[in-house]
């Protein structure tokens, strides 16, 4: 019987297969790391065979499946075996709420318009029993204005440090999305500075307005996520560098 692990093909008997499967079950790592470990084990097993060792002797020397898996789990950094944080789903909920607030009233009004003779009145009566549909906070504003909210939420959800706390790679999508979502903030900042620069005292009063408008359209969230991604990547690289220097 042949068993292919990664790029390694190993001739195995049922006891060896059960042994390898038991090791794989006890590994507390992601799929990519698990494949790498099992490939290394298969290569080691094959080289020991070529040196004349029997399968029983190899398994006895390596130890029980639990012991072998425990050695690999302990050798790997804690970051590779930590569960994925569920806090990132809060940004999915936030994105759904934004869509509901922005598009919800408009959809209700459209539905009501098809059921009534006049806009905003359900039932066609303009009397005591009439039900009026009120406009939402985004009435009269293009939904595209709130796109930075969705970009910021998507960028925060895709941050790699939710899965690996000290990840050094994988920040590209988050930086790209949050960077795009931050553009309105930069445009507003340039506009406010250019307008208020001749009157410096007015600039101080314009800062709260800038932050308020940025928060309203979601650009401020994108700025926060962008800075968060840069800080997390820098911290992870610094930690990895210090770890390598200690070794």
Number of strands: 4
Rg? 29 Å
Globally, the shape reads: elongated
Q: Strand fraction band?
A: under 5%
Q: In what order do the strands lie side by side in the largest sheet?
A: 1-2
Query: Structural class from helices and strands?
Result: mainly alpha
Number of structurally distinct domains: 2
- Report the major sheet: 2 strands, antiparallel
Compute the separation of the termini in Å: 41 Å
Helix content: 55-70%
What is the mean predicted local confidence, pLDDT?
78
- Give the topology string: H per helix, E per strand: EEHHHHHEEHHHH
Helix count, DSSP H or I runs of 4 or more residues: 9
Return residue spans where pLDDT drops below 50 for at least 5 consecutive residues: 118-125
Features:
4 strands, 2 domains, transmembrane, two-stranded antiparallel ribbon, single chain, DUF1700 domain-containing protein, 247 residues, mainly alpha, elongated, transmembrane helix, 9 helices, membrane
Question: Short summary of the structure?
Answer:
The protein has nine helices and four strands. By secondary structure, it is mainly α.
């Amino acid at each position: 019987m042949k068993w292919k692990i990664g790029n390694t093909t190993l001739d195995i008997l049922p006891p060896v297969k059960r042994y390898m499967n038991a090791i794989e079950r006890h590994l507390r790592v992601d799929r990519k790391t698990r494949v790498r470990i099992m490939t290394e084990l298969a290569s080691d097993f094959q080289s020991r065979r070529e040196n004349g060792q029997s399968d029983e002797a190899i398994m006895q020397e390596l130890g029980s499946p639990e012991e072998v898996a425990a050695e690999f789990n302990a050798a790997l950094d804690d970051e590779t075996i930590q569960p994925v944080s569920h806090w990132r789903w809060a940004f999915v909920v936030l994105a759904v709420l934004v869509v509901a607030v922005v598009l919800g009233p408009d959809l209700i009004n459209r539905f009501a318009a098809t059921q009534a003779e006049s806009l905003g009145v359900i039932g066609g009566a303009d009397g005591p029993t009439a039900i009026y549909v009120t406009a939402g906070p985004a009435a009269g504003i293009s939904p595209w204005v709130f796109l930075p909210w969705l970009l910021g939420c998507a960028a925060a959800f895709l941050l790699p440090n939710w899965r690996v706390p000290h990840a050094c790679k994988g920040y590209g999508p988050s930086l790209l999305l949050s960077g795009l979502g931050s553009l309105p903030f930069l445009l507003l900042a340039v506009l406010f500075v250019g307008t208020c620069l001749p009157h410096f005292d007015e600039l101080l009063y314009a800062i709260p307005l800038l932050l308020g408008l940025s928060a309203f359209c979601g650009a401020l969230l994108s700025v926060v996520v962008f800075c968060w991604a840069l800080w997390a990547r820098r911290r992870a690289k610094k930690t990895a560098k210090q770890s390598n220097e200690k070794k």
